[in-house]
Specification:
single chain, five-stranded mixed sheet, alpha/beta, globular, three-stranded parallel sheet
Length: about 230
Amino acid sequence: MAQSKRFKDAIKDLDLAKVYSIKDAIAVLKKFSPVKFDETFEVALNMGVDPRKADQQVRGSVLLPHGTGKDVKVLVFAKGDKAKEAEAAGADFVGSEDLADKIKEGWTGFDQVIATPDMMRVVGRLGKVLGPRGLMPAPKAGTVTTDVERTVKEVKAGRVEFKVDKSSNIHSIFGKLSFSEQNLEENYKALLDSIMKSKPAAMKGAYIKSISISTTMGPGLKLESNMMN
């Protein structure tokens, strides 16, 4: 995508080769914003794992202390009492085969999917639709669960999932431009701590090779990562 003159003018005094502390990087990006909407802070990590190996998968979730700043639309596959539990907890959509049929027809009006274990027979048929969007429920991510109430409330409150992709990268969000610098830093540290705790036992060498953060329309700034392995 071509960069606008406004963007080029805004970054001309930035040293994009510099390695920043998380505190300094957040401060720079908050001052930089060339647009007038509440941009999202994003982090990208290049991992030292080999995602082709089953014993080097990195996946998990973390409840950010200050949330994500997003209104997350939660869909829950459940029946009976668990469906009522999901509705009471604030789920936006609750159902079973009816929702599966709607998704097969192309509906995508949700941001997160949770399922009770007994509903995976229904959800399993949606792998080709939910998988590419990173929305397939999984026990390791905490989205296949019997504790529907807690899970829905946490997702609504700002729980984010992370998963290493085929290129050994992890991408996640950790707040909004309108957040205070302190809250953004605390969210980032909570996310990074959770990723560190998910380090596979079979992992050898540098776990995290590089880290960068950016805002939706801002430049990527490199972060210190040598102390994280």
